[in-house]
Amino acid sequence: MNYKLNYYFSILLLLTSLNLQAQKKYVLVVHGGAGTILKKSMTPEKEAAYTAALTKALQHGYDAIKSGKTSLDAVEAAIHVLEDSPLFNAGKGAVFTHDGKNEMDAAIMEGKSLKAGAVAGVTVIRNPITAARAVMEKSEHVMMVDRGAEQFAEQCGVEIVDPKYFYTKERWDGLQQAIKEDSVKAVLDHGNKKSMKLGTINRDYKFGTVGAVALDKMGNLAAGTSTGGMTNKKYGRVGDSPIIGAGTYANNLTAGISCTGWGEFYIRSVVAYDVSAMMEYKNLSVSDASKTALDKMEKLGGDGGLIALDKNGNVAMPFNTEGMYRGTVTEDGKIEVLIYK
Ligand code: ASP
Q1: Of 211, 206, 248, nearest to 231 (Cα)?
Q2: Please, which residues bridge with residue 67 across strands?
Q3: Is 9 part of a structural domain of the chain?
Q4: How far is CA 249 from CA 171, 276, 288, in A?
């Protein structure tokens, strides 16, 4: 009799835990770039610093959602933390162009209205994601570049800084190294063996673009991405991050998506929109759509990863590099940060 009771009790426990797992709802997901991120080449101090920065970003975003703010507010809050950290290739930690400048790109999109804003090639805006949001909310345009974008941001009250603010020794040394190795090639901030073989990656870069996707209490999704692009880039090169549909996309019918990787391939594969389209037209789950879109991009020769959060709070974070700085927070405020495979 006792044995039978125990048996029924364990079944009940199992079903309850399965149900709880099924109900786990994610409200925010962030990334800090994908790349050659190996445990063996990471010091405990560095690992702790990355984990702390990603945790802080998730906490700031979560606080916004918890207090009833919009998914756009949460995305902006989370990305601000990562832009202000020298650890990531965005804002303060942006890489240098061939000419020794920091030219940054960012985009933000709202899933409810399909409104979007983006800036590219900006050099004096402390938080490019805020400038992207200003383009979305305070202009009739979607994308502004260079000095025009800076002028508009300033008029909107977005914080302007001296370009010197973006100087970090590590990034400057990275540029000198890239120029020494090959003065012509721009260098990605990440890469796997395949891209190294193709000659695009010539050192073990570990820092990356940042992004966030949030789902607020009203059920609205938003996605944002911010980057310094590629070390040693020239001629006003712009990657996928500020291009709506390529590196950033959000649609309440499907998911919010932010990408990180070899930008040219993400542009050609229209990766972020591809995820959304497969969910909308083929009814694929967020994880199947994300994986399929990434595989298609990889077949062209690119590498990287993406984060995606669907309208029901399911998350996908696939990547085809050695690692990707990433983290999630669930409805109950539980934060998880991951770095390696
Ligand atoms: N996708 C970005 C670019 O190509 C780089 C990155 O994700 O680190 O500009």
Answers
A1: 206
A2: none
A3: no
A4: 29, 8, 17
Is the pLDDT at 3 greater than 70? The verdict is no
18 inside domain: no
Distance (Å) from CA 305 to ligand 1 centroid: 10
Kindly state if the Cβ of 263 falls inside 6 Å of ligand 1: yes
Q: At 223, which CATH number?
A: 3.60.20.30
27-42 burial by CB neighbour count: b if 16+ within 10 A, else e? bbbbbbbbbbbeeeeb
292 is catalytic: no
300 with 333: CB under 8 angstroms? no
What is the tally of structural domains in the chain? 1
pLDDT at residue 201 is higher than 60:
no
Catalytic residue among 209, 225, 248, 254: 209
Region for 214 from its dihedrals, namely left if φ exceeds 0, alpha if ψ lies in -120 to 50, beta otherwise: beta
- With tokens 């006003």, the residue in question is 236
Print the domain residue range for 319.
Answer: 24-340
State which ligand 1 atom lies nearest to the alpha carbon of 105. 9
pLDDT digits (tens, 9 = 90+) for 9-51: 566 555 555 555 556 899 999 999 998 888 888 899 999 999 9
- Report the residue among 95, 207, 262, 320 best suited for mutation to probe ligand 1: largest number of ligand atoms under 8 A from its CB: 262
Q: Which residues contact 134 (CB under 8 A, 6 or more apart)?
A: 117, 152, 153, 156, 158
* Phi, psi angle pair for 23, to nearest 5°: -90, -5
Instruction: Look up residue 142 and give its two tokens.
Output: 């979607």
Task: List the Cα angle 144/148/152 in 5-degree steps.
Answer: 85
User: H helices then E strands: how many in the chain?
Assistant: 10, 12
Task: Give dist(CA 169, CA 86) in Å, integer.
Answer: 10
Q: How far is CA 182 from each of CA 102, 124, 187, 283, 337, rounded to the nearest angstrom?
A: 19, 28, 9, 45, 35
Q: Are 322 and 37 in contact (CB under 8 A)?
A: yes
Task: Let me know if residue 279 belongs to a domain.
Answer: yes
Residue 76 lies in a domain: yes
Neighbour-count burial of 140, counting CB atoms closer than 10 A to its CB (0-12 exposed, 13-18 middle, 19+ buried) = exposed
Give the pairing of strands 116-122 and 143-145.
parallel
Confidence (pLDDT) at 200: 44
